[in-house]
Amino acid sequence: MLTLHDTQRTIDDRQQAITIAPIVLRCSIHGVEKPFPCEQCGKKFSTKDDLNRHVRREVAAKQFTCSICNATLREKIDLQAHLATHNGEKNFACDMCEKRYRHRSSLSKHRSAKHRA
Questions:
Q1: How far is it, in rounded angstroms, from Cα 65 to Cα 58?
Q2: Contacts for 77 with CB less than 8 Å, ≥ 6 apart
Q3: What does each C-alpha distance from 106 to 66, 81, 100, 102, 112 come to in angstroms?
Q4: DSSP class of residue 97?
Q5: What is the pLDDT of residue 116?
Q6: pLDDT score at 1
Q7: Phi–psi pair at 110, nearest 5 degrees
Q8: pLDDT tens per residue across span 65-113
Q9: Mind giving me the DSSP string for 7-56?
């Protein structure tokens, strides 16, 4: 049995060693009670700091609301890209062919797959 003070053990016939401290730490984290629930989404946290970080990042940060479907987004640019899904705009054009896309990431994927660019 591995203990907290064991730092390395062999794991197979090639005699590869691993550090187990992160594994022990991860196991102890997963066994912790989570008494701090988010009032907005119900997700639970083990510390008040983790809950506050979640609220700042996930809940309070979503301040841009779509006027069509009430979706909430963190950034103004995300809202603009989202609005394009409602009005059919395709503002990102491939400079090598006639294809157009709503999202820059879709154009990048297209260029990589079709034009090796």
A1: 14
A2: none
A3: 22, 12, 9, 7, 10
A4: S
A5: 86
A6: 43
A7: -60, -50
A8: 999 999 988 788 889 888 888 988 888 999 999 899 988 899 999 999 9
A9: -EEE-STT--EEE-HHHHHHHHHHTS---EE-TTT--EESSHHHHHHHII
Domain boundaries, the chain: 1-30, 64-114
Which of 111, 91, 109 lies closest to 101 in space, CA to CA?
Answer: 91
pTM (two decimals): 0.38
User: Is domain 64-114 annotated with CATH 3.30.70.20?
Assistant: no
From the list 11, 3, 60, the residue with the least C-alpha distance to 28 is 3
Task: Give the number of residues written for the chain.
Answer: 117
pLDDT at 56: 80
Residue closest to 87 by CA, chosen among 79, 96, 75, 95: 79
The residues facing 65 across adjacent strands are 72
112: Cβ contacts below 8 Å, ≥ 6 apart: none
